[in-house]
Design brief:
452 residues; binds NADPH dihydro-nicotinamide-adenine-dinucleotide phosphate; Rossmann fold; binds (2Z)-2-iminopentanedioic acid; 5-stranded mixed beta sheet; globular; 5-stranded parallel beta sheet
Length: 452
């Protein structure tokens, strides 16, 4: 690495020695910026990289709530406000027992450049809690969300910070959070995105991340004269992003043969048809069941339980394209080797940072087209930006209009990251392309705004 980028990375290692995920996100980013840093002396002089790797503000707070047995429970809440250089802080809330400051900071850091790539005026942030929604009643989730918002409300606002969903936060949680904000502040305003259609939500927001992932992957494939139709795809996860990825892949004539959750995966060689997908949506979103039940309902389906000590079985199935849509580091070295061995030609990252540094190197080193998360899953936050625009205008756009805007945004992202890749790195290095294209705008804004 160049000594400037090296120094920034060393500083992160020294100041946050236990934040492995944050270090990983910064490292991958700096590897790309390394290729342009010599051409940008003002970035070095004005310490843009040093500022980018230090959140503008980190909020950590206690979340007390009462469970159904009347016992007091305590969780830790977070909001990392990483950058407001190009707009109000924007990014999701994650509810998962694994949540810690390192995970919040990696997500907030990546969000800054992802949001920049959308072309919309949104800064970057992320929040959440180590609360585990699994097995909790609706009433418990509601009491948790109300308590979480009772602290968070003072830090957010439609022109300040606008949270949304992520793992463990969907329509139900956004509704409870919104209700509590409204009650405390006596204002009905766009402080969250992903709201229900009856109270200020946007058409296509639930679909946006999955649809956007497929639109961007399609654009990359088109650039290589490759097709989606008739191809076999692997999808991991079975939540919001996975579901709408499958829906769009089906619509475009591809066949999806896997889904998973943290307990295991299903392999349905005949393909997850639209009817079977409807079953999955009801199973996961309404009944809050496990993916194992799919294999019990449909014949000819294999269920493989997950053993965290072994490579992830989803990535060991012969197919054409793979779409990780569960969580960070779900593709490690051995998984990447399996993907290459099984002839995968494209990996589209629906999840944030699903590939380890080693895995990324193996995939790209073997000519696999890698659509990085910052670009590939930007459709979700892009439509969140459109929800903010609709809220400000007190309007609701049609499904067709939002879908068309989403397509335009994803096609623009493809154009920008492929041009940046060719100019500063090499053709089809979309990792460098996304990091560099996302960085440029934020960096210019920071230089213009002075030392803040
Ligand atoms: P959901 O909560 O709807 O679904 C998450 C899915 O991933 C579930 O199937 C879950 O299984 C699985 N999963 C979660 N954590 C783990 C883990 N540690 N190990 C194995 N499986 C796991 O979340 P989303 O679909 O919204 O999010 C999925 C990914 O997409 C995340 O990386 C998120 O950051 C990213 N993303 C989401 C966006 C959005 O708009 N929602 C936008 C952009 C990116 P289980 O039920 O067993 O926990
Ligand atoms: O990672 C992400 O981009 C999201 N979870 C969506 C953020 C948003 O504000 O819609």
């Amino acid at each position: 690495m160049h000594d400037v980028t090296e120094r920034v990375y060393e500083h992160v290692l020294k100041t946050d020695p236990d934040q492995k995920e944050f270090q990983q996100a910064v490292y991958t980013f700096l590897q790309s910026i390394d290729k342009i840093i010599e051409e940008l002396p003002e970035v070095t002089y004005h310490k843009v990289l040093e500022r980018m790797t230090e959140p503008e503000r980190t909020i950590m707070f206690r979340v007390p709530w009462i469970d159904d047995e009347g016992r007091l429970q305590i969780n830790r809440g977070y909001r990392v406000e990483m950058s407001s250089a190009i707009g109000p802080y924007k990014g999701g809330l994650r509810l998962h027992p694994s949540v810690n400051l390192s995970i919040m900071k990696f997500l907030a850091f990546e969000q800054v450049f992802k949001n920049s790539l959308t072309g919309l005026p949104m800064g970057g942030g992320k929040g959440g809690s180590d609360f585990n929604p699994k097995g909790k009643s609706d009433a418990e989730v509601m009491r948790f969300c109300q308590s979480f918002m009772t602290e968070l409300y003072r830090h957010i606002g439609p022109d300040t910070d606008v949270p949304a969903g992520d793992i463990g936060v969907g329509g139900r949680e956004i509704g409870y959070l919104f209700g509590q904000y409204k009650r405390i502040t006596n204002t009905f305003t766009g402080i969250l995105t992903g709201k229900g259609m009856d109270f200020g939500g946007s058409n296509i927001r639930p679909e946006a991340t999955g649809y956007g992932l497929v639109y961007l992957s399609e654009a990359i494939l088109r650039g290589e004269k490759m097709e989606l139709a008739g191809k076999t795809c692997l999808v991991s996860g079975s939540g919001n992003v996975a579901q709408y990825t499958v829906e769009k892949l089906n619509e475009l004539g591809a066949k999806v043969v896997t889904l998973s959750d943290s307990s295991g995966m299903i392999y349905d060689e005949s393909g997850i048809s639209p009817e079977k997908l409807r079953y999955v949506m009801n199973l996961k979103n309404v009944k809050r069941g496990r993916i194992k039940e799919y294999a019990e309902k449909y014949s000819g389906v294999e269920y493989i339980a997950r053993n965290p000590e072994e490579p992830n079985p989803v990535w060991n199935i012969k197919a054409d394209y793979a779409f990780p849509c569960a969580t960070q580091n779900e593709i490690l070295k051995a998984d990447a080797e399996n993907l290459v061995k099984n002839g995968i030609k494209l990996v589209g990252e629906g999840a944030n940072m699903p590939c380890s540094v080693e895995a990324e190197k193996i995939l790209m080193g073997n000519g696999v087209l890698l659509a990085p998360a910052k670009a590939a899953n930007a459709g979700g936050v892009a439509v969140s930006g459109l929800e903010m625009a609709q809220n400000s205008a007190r309007m609701t756009w049609s499904r067709e209009k939002v879908d068309q805007e989403l397509r335009n945004i994803m096609n623009n992202i493809y154009k920008n990251i492929s041009e940046a890749a060719e100019k500063y790195s090499e053709k089809n290095n979309f990792v460098d392309g996304a990091n560099i294209a996302g960085f440029m705008k934020v960096s210019r804004a920071m230089l213009a705004e002075g030392y803040v």
